[in-house]
């Protein structure tokens, strides 16, 4: 059997290391996972009740392929038409569908050189040419990205806040960029962490959709909503764009359980407010500790922060792992940086204690 020649070199996506694996491999009884930007505070109680109801009463019934009830509720919340929304098995699947619907061999697609890896992976599956533009101080360099647009460019990807650096482009910066992008080029604005952002200059992509028909905004229920295991995310854009994506969507791509949990989660604004506030407190604590330790970090606006450990990140990752802390390392253009998810207060304090021990041990050995 012979696969497509352009996929044989592609790496398989590596998620954060599971807690169970670390406990088994290292013989640990307590492990804190701060690697995958999951919500340490779980999900809404309303969402849990909805999950139980669906599993109890409707597990044998196919889901609504069009997610009609959830679409209607989300459209009302966002102030858009129902034909402007598409759901996916996480926003990852919406990215896959975008690549499938718009990219053909020879097309060009532009993204930052250190951003969410799923953009590049799906573009390469479609045999498109990937143009990677270096981040500037950990942030998307929109003017440089604009300069790389040609008549072969199909899609530009902007992750805001950017994963892994956590930095943002401002409303003024993004609108200036959009005003110059040719209308034939689709701009994908990935706002997976939008609900965590408290910075007033941050752009709300949904509000820009009426001005720019070539813009699609991605969001998810995996992060602040705490429904990562249920795999449901969505895209919002011009109905024509959504229709094209729908034409390549697999039937029943989101489950009844995920749809019901997402619908219930939308109604629990108090849970989101609490998570946002606790995340802001956690970010403030981590910044204070990194400042005290003299460690550089990027200006974080999601539920994670990326800092310079001043040593090879793989070594720091392994050392933290032996102390029961799962972090994220291995960034090609930031070889000494670690990305850490903001945990609970207790988890954050245990991480800082472990990090200090690791750095002290490294200094002794060095």
Plain-language structure description:
The chain is built from 13 helices and eleven strands. The protein has helices at residues 19-26, 45-58, 68-78, 90-102, 117-125, 142-147, 171-180, 205-208, 239-246, 256-266, 269-293, 313-322, 345-365; strands at 32-33, 85-88, 108-112, 129-133, 153-159, 186-190, 215-220, 233-237, 304-308, 325-326, 337-341. The radius of gyration is 21 Å and the shape is globular. The mean pLDDT is 95.
Question: Layout of helices and strands, plus pairs?
Answer:
Layout: H1 19-26, E1 32-33, H2 45-58, H3 68-78, E2 85-88, H4 90-102, E3 108-112, H5 117-125, E4 129-133, H6 142-147, E5 153-159, H7 171-180, E6 186-190, H8 205-208, E7 215-220, E8 233-237, H9 239-246, H10 256-266, H11 269-293, E9 304-308, H12 313-322, E10 325-326, E11 337-341, H13 345-365
Helix pairs in contact: 2-10, 3-10, 4-5, 11-13
């Amino acid at each position: 059997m012979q696969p497509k020649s352009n996929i044989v070199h592609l790496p398989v996506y590596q998620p954060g290391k599971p807690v169970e694996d670390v406990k088994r491999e290292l013989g640990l009884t307590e492990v804190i996972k701060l690697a995958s930007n999951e919500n340490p505070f779980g999900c809404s109680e309303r969402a849990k009740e909805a999950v139980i109801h669906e599993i109890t009463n409707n597990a044998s019934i196919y889901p609504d392929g069009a997610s009609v009830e959830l679409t209607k509720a989300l459209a009302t919340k966002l102030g858009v038409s129902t034909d402007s929304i598409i759901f996916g098995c996480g926003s990852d699947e919406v990215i896959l569908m975008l690549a499938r619907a718009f990219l053909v061999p020879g097309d060009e697609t532009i993204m930052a050189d250190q951003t969410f890896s799923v953009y590049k992976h799906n573009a390469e599956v479609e045999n498109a040419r990937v143009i990677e533009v270096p981040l500037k101080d950990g942030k998307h360099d929109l003017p440089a990205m604009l300069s790389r647009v040609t008549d072969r460019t199909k899609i530009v990807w902007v992750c805001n806040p950017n994963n892994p650096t956590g930095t943002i482009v401002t409303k003024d910066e993004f609108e200036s960029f959009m005003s110059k992008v040719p209308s034939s080029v689709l701009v994908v604005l990935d706002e997976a962490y939008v609900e965590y952002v408290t910075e007033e200059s941050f752009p709300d992509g949904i509000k820009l959709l009426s001005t720019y028909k070539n813009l699609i905004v991605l969001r998810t229920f995996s992060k602040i909503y705490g429904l990562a295991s249920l795999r449901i995310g969505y895209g919002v854009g011009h109905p024509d764009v959504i229709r094209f994506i729908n034409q390549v969507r697999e039937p029943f791509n989101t489950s009844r359980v995920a749809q019901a949990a997402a619908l219930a989660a939308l109604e629990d604004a108090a849970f989101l407010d609490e998570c946002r506030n606790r995340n802001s407190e956690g970010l403030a604590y981590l910044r204070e500790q990194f400042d005290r330790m003299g460690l550089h970090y990027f200006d974080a606006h999601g539920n994670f922060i990326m800092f310079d450990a001043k040593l090879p990140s793989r070594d720091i990752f392994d050392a933290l792992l032996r102390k029961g802390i799962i972090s994220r390392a291995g960034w090609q253009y930031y070889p000494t940086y670690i990305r850490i998810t903001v945990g609970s207060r207790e988890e954050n304090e245990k991480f800082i204690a472990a990090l200090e021990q690791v750095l002290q041990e490294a200094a002794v050995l060095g």
